[in-house]
Amino acid sequence: MPSTRTEPGKLTLPVVLAAQFVIPMSIAGTAIALPDIALDLGDSPGPLQWVVNGFNLAFALFTVVWGAVSDRIGHRASFRIGVALTGLAGIVSAAAPTLIVLDVARILAGVGAAAVLVGSTSILASTYFGAARAKAFAAFGTVNGLGLALGPTIAGLLVGGIGWRGVFLTQAAILAVAFAGTLALPHIRPDSAGTSPVLDFALLRNRKFLGLCLVPVAGAIGFVTLLTYLPNALSGIVAMDAASAGLLMLVMTAPVLLAPAAVARLITAGRTTPTTVIHVSLAALIIGDLGLLLLRPDGSLWWIVGPMVLVGFGFGLPIGLVDGEALASVPPHSTGTAAGVLNLFRIGGEALLVAGYAWLLSSLVTDRLSGDPEADAAAAGLPGHAHEYAGAFHDVVGILVVLVGVVAAAAIVLTRSAKSADVSSAA
Q1: Which of 363, 350, 349 shows the shortest CA–CA distance to 393?
Q2: Which of 265, 271, 262 shows the shortest CA–CA distance to 317?
Q3: Residues 6+ apart with CB under 8 A from 420
Q4: Which of 82, 177, 211, 343: disulfide with 415, CB 3.0–4.6 Å?
Q5: HSE (side-chain half, CA atoms, 13 Å) at 1
Q6: CA nearest to 78, candidates 125, 107, 109, 113
Q7: Collapsed DSSP state (helix, strand, coil) of residue 307
Q8: 426 CB neighbour count, 10 Å cutoff
Q9: How far is CA 139 from the centre of its chain?
Q10: Residue 225 half-sphere exposure toward CB, CA atoms < 13 A
Q11: Does the domain at residues 12-184+197-426 carry the CATH identifier 3.40.50.720?
């Protein structure tokens, strides 16, 4: 515990959540603008994919860097720097005249976003304690889910209404408000002599905690990757425009918004258990992803509505629940560090997996159209080569199904083995 306890102000949680909301929006929403960016700035596959991948990879890599920096300069300072850097990068992104400038801006935004994440978790862990801390981190997880769920729809409407540059301007505007609010954040002085590290990976020796950390990784594989790039598939396979694709994505994201409240009511009423909910969610991800193989150039979109709903519930059912179960599985003095590790698994996993999906899909599309001058445009999701894009999409989705199955099995085995060990020790 820190030697001096810092009390949160009334604006602490709203400011942290407002800034954090932009991060999952950036991960999930930017890709829907790629076809329009390609038309405006060019469709060279490397630079175009780095609009998304540059942010995601910089974000994931710099999370650890900012963890060390934050301990030295203070959590409030690192959070403010992150908000400012991400906001300024959003302005540069909106004004970018070339893909290279846009790529550099998105990389800088990812660096800043890592500071926002580390600062957010550190501030919450340092200013909230006991039940208040659990509620704060549950709200943190919910906001991340909302940002992911609404990202494609918000971005699609912005692209359709004011163009792709509006996506980055909107993010910058939200961050500008959050930066003004950072003036009200308490000053937090890390006590290196008596404070646990923000990211204590020794907690992963706890099998139940590790198993629960894998649940959001399964969600990243089976939901977040498709949430990010399914709009591109709809463009490339059935020639759907960005605004329409963003609205259709509500079929997949509405369950994310509705499921957590329904789960809370069922558990409170004793009609289900957290373990059952998690198992159902993992099964829904696998079945829903399999159903998305029905997306074909000559097929009806109605065939994928059910699978999209299932995938949404697969991601939405354990939101908040996993956080509570994971924090309850570690000693009370470690809940803050546990939340940091869990969120690194969640958001770092999302960033890396979205980047991997983009690289693999682009490679498969361009391989199928080797020598075709329109290969790069097709890989960006522009209409014209529906069958080639569909074939690559089906290959990638098949891989996602296998990966979700492996991660889900590992999560179930770890949590069950932990439960068996607890029963044995009690006996």
Answers
A1: 363
A2: 262
A3: none
A4: 211
A5: 11
A6: 113
A7: helix
A8: 6
A9: 15
A10: 30
A11: no
| DSSP state, residue 1 | -
CA 338 – CA 197 distance, rounded (Å): 10
- pLDDT (tens digit per residue) in 53-103: 899 888 878 877 787 787 778 888 889 999 999 999 999 999 999 999 999
Residue 31 tokens, joined? 């890709």
Cα(309)–Cα(286) distance, integer angstroms: 12
CB atoms within 10 A of CB 302: 8
pLDDT digits (tens, 9 = 90+) for 213-270: 999 999 999 999 999 899 999 999 999 998 899 899 999 988 988 888 788 888 888 8
Domain ranges for the chain, please list them: 12-184+197-426
How many angstroms separate the CA atoms of 229 and 238, rounded? 14
For tokens 């150039």, the residue is 297
The pTM (predicted TM-score) of the whole model is 0.76
Strand locations in 144-286, DSSP E? none
Say how far apart CA 280 and CA 260 lie, in whole Å. 13
User: Are 215 and 318 a contacting pair, CB within 8 Å?
Assistant: yes
Alpha carbon of 99 to those of 235, 301, 351, 421: distances in Å?
Answer: 21, 33, 20, 54
In the structure encoding, which two tokens stand for residue 361, read together? 């899909």
Cβ neighbours of residue 338 under 8 Å, at least 6 residues apart? Answer: 200, 203, 209, 326, 327, 330
Q: Is 252 exposed, middle or buried (0-12, 13-18, 19+ CB in 10 A)?
A: buried
Q: Select from 5, 133, 21, 125 the least CA-distant residue to 71.
A: 125
**Cα 121 from Cα 131, distance rounded (Å):** 16
Q: From 227, 235, 249, select the one nearest 386 (Cα to Cα).
A: 235
